[in-house]
Design brief:
alpha/beta; FAD/NAD(P)-binding domain; Polyamine Oxidase, Chain A, domain 2; 15% strand
């Protein structure tokens, strides 16, 4: 990996050096979207420089041995249903650059007190069979999405929800289901708590209470991905995704400059295109952008949402789940009933810390034994976070442990070590995680479709040569690189139009 010296302005290649017809692009921020944009532009023959404030690239897609030698801990993102399904990653052939997906026995489980857990399996048939008398309703709800999952992914992962979709009939079928609040749809369709909770907790990846309109869209998509592509982890840690993206970039001559926080775009030299892997708050703080007043005003109105407070655990063995099947799940939604989930998410969204928050647990070791080796052999690394009010920095580790203990008595006795990371600490590490918001901004209201502003082309800023490629643009959060792909396509399309105008005149 080219971790080019802590570059100052004097380290910048001269304008016009290398690249297609001497073209140069600068990318600010090396999260998955920034690196994806950089890789596509470098592959197109541009000279590309990526600038990263931290000592290593990746943004929230990073891993480190924070629980001691032999451990691999995902510092941000952990499970990757959209990563394995990403057209951007597939086109870049990250597998040829070392990325390997590892699948747990089951993608996701939702434990329940006093009864068997609800389990999302790798197929629609197995999931429905496990849901008893709700199996038929589960199949009827999900089959149209599962059967045409590629068409739905093309619609959902596109550059704008306001454009004419590539598959309009599929979108129409999806929309009839997606518009509902997940809690209301679950209660209308399912008779038992297992199916209701399984569906609603998948919708919580919207980081909105399941009483909100359109949250069923998230439940449908995450469920369909689990039942078709799975919810894998990256073997060796999420940082392996970053390493593969950097490998693609460098194979085409691109460069990553770490330890260089860009505060003024004028310091990075002349470039035909600048791509910002930043959320609105960081964009507004950047000097030299030349943003128009109306666009900047819209960015100032951007709202950040519910945060997360993270706890990583080192255990002396696997979590002792009451339902043994949960041990084979890569992702576990720990919250209890649908009513408990709704209450917890309403409280967090309203700025009040719930006593029993929604907790997501990732058991990467269920798929990837490399997470604890050598001195950590026989130990278990566990990743967890709780949904908290944005910026809530009071300790929550006891609440996280309490929630897991409800469904895995004896969990506390297995804790060897723990590392808690508050929302402010997450933001200090990666400024895109404002107040612990891992989605680049609230998905509530119009921000679900107008990201980050009411413009026809959300990856263009209206300032010539300046583009956005963060989770604050479509298609939103997750490690999939699609915002980077769309930004790169906008750069290349604009360059082609400029070339055509020059040829004409």
């Amino acid at each position: 990996m080219t971790t080019q010296h802590e570059a100052g302005a004097g380290d910048t290649p001269p304008p016009g050096a290398g690249g297609a017809e001497g073209r140069r692009a600068v990318v600010v921020g090396s999260g998955p979207n920034g690196l994806t944009a950089a890789a596509f532009l470098a592959r197109a023959g541009w000279s590309v420089d990526v600038y990263e404030r931290n000592a290593a690239p990746g943004g929230a897609a990073a891993s480190a041995p924070v629980l001691g030698p032999g451990t691999i801990v995902d510092l941000g993102a952990a499970g990757h249903p959209f990563g394995i399904a990403s057209p951007a990653f597939r086109e870049l052939d990250l597998a040829a650059h070392g990325l390997e997906w590892a699948h747990p026995e089951v993608p996701m489980a939702h434990p329940l007190e006093g009864r068997p857990a609800a389990v999302l399996h790798r197929s629609l048939e197995a999931t429905a069979a496990d849901l008893g008398r709700d199996g038929g309703a589960w199949t009827r709800l999900h089959a149209p999405i599962v059967d045409r999952v590629d068409e739905h992914l093309e619609n959902i992962l596109g550059p704008s929800l306001l454009r004419l979709p590539r598959h309009p009939l599929a979108l129409a079928r999806f929309g009839v289901r997606a518009a509902w609040p997940a809690g209301a749809l679950g209660r209308a369709l399912f008779r038992d708590e297992a199916a209701r909770s399984l569906f609603a907790s998948s919708s919580i990846h919207a980081i909105l209470p399941p009483s909100h309109l359109l949250t069923s869209a998230f439940g449908l998509v995450f469920g369909a991905l689990g039942m078709t592509r799975g919810w894998p982890v990256a073997r060796g840690g999420t940082g392996a995704i970053t390493a593969a993206l950097v490998s693609v970039l460098e194979a085409h001559g691109g460069r990553v400059h770490v330890g260089h926080e860009v505060r003024d775009l004028r310091e990075v030299g002349v470039a035909e295109a600048v791509v910002l892997d930043l959320t609105p708050r960081q964009v507004l703080a950047l000097q030299g952008t030349g943003l128009g007043g109306r666009y900047a005003a819209q960015l100032r109105r951007w709202r950040y949402g519910t945060g997360v407070s993270k706890v990583d655990y080192l255990l002396d063995g696997p979590i002792p789940w009451t339902d043994a099947r949960v041990a084979g799940a890569g992702t576990v939604h720990v919250t209890g009933t649908l009513a408990e989930l709704e209450h917890a998410e309403r409280e967090a969204a309203a700025g009040r810390m719930p006593d029993r928050p929604f907790v997501m647990v990732c058991q990467q070791q269920a798929a990837d034994p490399s997470r604890a080796t050598g001195p950590a052999e026989g130990r278990t690394v566990v990743w967890a976070y709780a949904h908290v009010p944005g910026g809530y920095d009071a300790p929550v580790e006891h609440l996280v442990a309490d929630q897991v203990e409800r469904f895995a008595p004896g969990f506390r006795d297995r804790i060897v070590d723990r590392v808690a990371t508050t929302p402010s600490a997450l933001e200090a590490w990666d400024p895109n995680l404002v107040g612990g918001d891992v989605a680049g901004g609230s998905m509530g209201g119009l921000q679900q479709v107008l990201r980050p502003a009411a413009v026809a082309s959300p990856h263009r800023t209206g300032t010539p040569g300046l583009y956005l490629a963060s989770s604050s643009t479509p298609p939103g959060g997750g490690v999939h690189g699609m915002a980077g792909l769309h930004a790169a396509r906008a750069v290349l399309a604009d360059a082609a139009r400029r070339d055509a105008r020059r040829r004409r005149g």
